[in-house]
Amino acid sequence: MNEWRTPPEIVEIVRNAMGGIDLDPCAPVDAPHHIGAPTAFTVQENGLDRAWFGKVYMNPPYGREAPIWVKKAMKEVHSGNAECVVAMLAARTDTRWFRPLLKYPVAYLHGRVKFLDEAGIPGGEPAFPSALVLIRRSTAADDLDAFARAVGDRGTVVLPWRAI
Description:
The chain has 164 residues and is α/β, with parallel strands linked by helices. It has a single domain, classed as Rossmann fold (3-Layer(aba) Sandwich). Helices cover 21% and strands 20% of the residues. The chain contains three helices and seven strands; from the N terminus they run H-E-E-E-H-E-E-E-H-E. The strands form two sheets. Strands 3-4-6-5-7 form a five-stranded mixed beta sheet, with helices on both faces. A two-stranded parallel sheet has the order 1-2.
């Protein structure tokens, strides 16, 4: 399985961290508004080819596509299109594609996330840990505090040394 639907408790963290979600660029085809964002791009609309905007939540397909989505998220934020992106990713700190994300606040989630299946039922747990990464051009203390408070005891937030 390459696509993992976000469980409601993670959507709640993201909403609280950003103050809402405007865009889901990686929405499932059969449930495009699964996370409640007013705008959603499915594979048919191809979020990689479209401009992003506002507060974005990204739970991209896992596997070899993840690095492409990570690059897109950073580009959309640093070009000024998106205000911020919270990315739900496999915590693959040993990979070349994950390393650029370490300059942003990262919440390493405790335990394995129980993603949802097509029927919305918590399915199997992936064989890897998960992380939420807050991608912003600049991260004010209030943003960091909101992110850490939203994660709460569900994970450990690690800040890049420049943000401390």
